[in-house]
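haha ok so turns out i had the wrong file open the whole time. this is the CORRECT one, sorry everyone. sequence first:
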Amino acid sequence: MSPHPLVSQLRFARVEMLRALEGVSDEDSLRRLGPMNSLGWIVGHLADQENLYWVVIAQGKNAAPGLRERVGHGKPSSTPPLSEMLATWKIVTREADQFLDTLTPHSLHRPLEWRGKPVEETAGTWLLRNIYHYWYHLGESQSIRQMLGHTGLPEFIGDMSQAVYEPEVESG
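then structure:
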């Protein structure tokens, strides 16, 4: 079975994030410019959201213990190395994909449960929130790179061949 079209869109956003960070050194990934986040933090922060939604809540596991304290929403600023955060992100997204591959049009209309209670938004809304979160931070990352003096940055949006529009098919 093919992944749900929104899952394909999330995976496309992930690929674009990786493309946006090609060639960034750990040294540059640690820098904070004014109130902006560091590039390492951005990757860890996106991994934290995926870990919370698709691993902790959806599967009852935790692929990245301690990550939320370092880069979670509302936590103090930090500057983790990009290489470390990319390694964590890869672990998290691999675990998240185990759940994401099970999503159907029907399941996207239901909220997930956390500690025996439904969460406030549906799985589909969380998936959209996750996709938009990637794009927000992808733009931020390119602004940071420009401010760091990086040149030859990639143009967006990239190769859409893996994320073409496909109508939803109801499968139960």
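The mean pLDDT is 92.
again sry for the mixup
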